[in-house]
Amino acid sequence: MSDGSTSSVKMRIKREIGGFTGLFGRVRHRWWFRILAVLALLSGVFVFLVWLFIARNLPSVDTLKNYEPPLPTNVRSAEGLPILSYARERRVQLSFEEYPKLLVEAYMSAEDKTFFEHHGVDFPGLVRAAFQGLVSGSTPRGTSTITQQVAKNLLVGNETSYLRKAKEGILAWRMEDVLTKQQIMELYLNSIELGRNAGGVEAASQAYFGKELDQLTLPQMAYLAILPKGPSNYDPDRHTQRALDRRNWVLGQMLENGFIDQAQHDSAVASPLGTVPRQTPKFERVGGYFTEEVRRQLIDKFGETDETGPYSVYSGGLWVRTSLDPRLQQYAQKALRDGLLRYDRGRGWSGPIGHADIGRSWLQSFLNTNIGVDYEDWRAGVLIERTGDSWQVGFDDGSTGTLPKWAATMPVRGQGGHAFDAFKPGDIVAVAPESGQWALRSIPKVSGGMVVEDPRTGRILAMQGGFDSRIQSFNRATQAQRQPGSTIKPIVYAAALEQGMTPASIVVDGPFCVWQGANLGQKCFRNFGNARGAGPKTLRWGIEQSRNLMTVQIANQTGMDHVVDLIQRIGVSRQKFPPYLSYALGAGETTVTRMVNAYSILVNHGRALNPSLIDFVQNRKGAVVWPENWRPCEGCNAPDWKGGAMPRPVTRAKQVIDALSAYQMVHIAEGVVQRGTATVLRDLGRPMMGKTGTTSGPTDVWFVGGTPQMIGGLYIGYDTPTNLGGYAQGGSIAAPIFKQFAIPAFEGMEKVPFTAPQGIRMVRIDRASGKPVTGGWPSSDPLSGIIWEAFKPETEQRRGRRDQEEQPETKAVEKKAAPKKQEGDSDFLQREGGIY
Question: Which portions of the sequence form the region Disordered (predicted)?
Fold first, then answer.
């Protein structure tokens, strides 16, 4: 090598660095380290993206700590007995300890056998499902743990996608950190949908087997465990064999997992499914109109679903205590129905009560109409087909029967001809058993409403709004606006008593005309049936005999402004009627409920009452949520009495009418039962008040009245006002219906007189003239000429004095004879034990 050559070799001196820094420096340039670094970076980016687009917006699992599944509202009677539930699905919430151990193991075997071992996610299963989805080109299905299913059902939703699976997994992992395994299993068993409108396992047990969980057998538990995969896939009626195969597979898994032994397995496999037929929820026979009105009021207060508040009717799990007395409801229902049928009898067949498009499945079409009849042995049936002189009729339980021609010969109302010839396939008719077959029955066209109220509290004890709520949903007890006719007269007369008249005031029962202006001319009023005037009579007589001419005379003297003011104050109308005399005869419209409440106010000494169907409402935990100011009555159920004064609740009710006037009116209305237009009730043999009513036409007939413990009222009439016939009167149609109710309702009830408020004076008067009497006493004869009358202080007529001095010789004779002291009013009252 020559001296001028240059070397290409370069030398670099490195200093060896020890420790972690040196190690990192030595490996960071290795290929495998670079690959790991890239993977870590990608993982970090992936985790960040998952958090950004998925996990960040997921709901909090903490909400599940206090999760409350949707539960139905349960309605109870006044005695606390359950009568109905408002629900769109069956659901019963149980705690984990209430679920049988074998049932839990059946669900684990079917859905997640390692449930108590994993942390919410089955990672091998997820990878397997994802791979199968990629290979098949479909979205992933299955492999969800029970925890993931809870997350899906309660937090995520049912979307089928990879995104939903990712959300499930994240939430399931979080749930395992927040809830115990027992809490997660409880949520699952309470919330899973299992078909037949059943939410949760307890409801499914009732729906499929008609049993509670603790009554189920092993094969029945195994069947319920297969339903989460798809209730319709294992329907016991349509897919019986598929359901058996899947149930037996679950039993095999239970054997494999050690939950049952071989003998249990073999016995269960050999068992049939044992399910009961699918049942449409039965219509509650107790208080259909009453409970429907309760439902309306609850919806107005709380709403229908969760979106409307925490105490919604269909998912809030409310417990509602009503004022319904099932015994009285049954009597009122039967009395009104029997009365409607009596009036309607002989008028021919009223036509089909509905129609179903029977198509391929007459049963399902019939069930969809939700039409039924709940009267004695009557049933609603759908006409399927005619064969010769008979029709095949089907019922809601799937059974069929025969309706022969001889049992359907009544004429068609308004058309003529036989009902049998007017039948068409799909017609829904009312029938009753007769001679081993079925005979046609007619649902009455005339209708009406009836209400029974406790006048001491305003609680509605019974309500019937028509013949049958499944046929006629319109509640005539609360919704029908009708003219009350003469039942308004006690309110008119009460206004007169407030303005200074007395029960003994004399009013002329004679012609009365008023000038109504140039356009309307002169209006002359008439008594019912054009009865002639009877001349001067007492105010009491005018009510007892329901005289229109006396009523308008009294209203005119009192002033119609005062009359319509009291009609509004006492609750007959929401708004004040115009001050026209026709309103004193019942021209204004009102409801049965309002009229019954008005009479109850009179009996309650004029204190306002708010007619109520609901006593109180509790949430699912038992706390009273309505009324807001509700307080428990401490010591009200004390086992014994220690001699102290009886507790008297403070009365805060508004005084809407003078108490003395109210009692005077009640005392007068007792005479209506004793010798007036409601004498059909006299033989009930107890203190009663009331008033009948008949509107123009007549289109409606009324009765309102009762005892100190119970006031009832009803009307009968067509929904479209139609003449009932000249013979129709409140005393001949409405009062007998009330009597049919009262006979069983009053049985065993104490005979209590109407109590008089402080200040009332009971005076003997001549019933015809209204003048005080000193020489005789009232008798038990309703037509006695001498009666006790109620007066306000200083309003009764004064007895006259003898003006002529007695002769001396007469006085001497009296002294010798030592006559007996004449008995006075107070002596009589002491001897008779009081007077009502």
Answer: 791-836
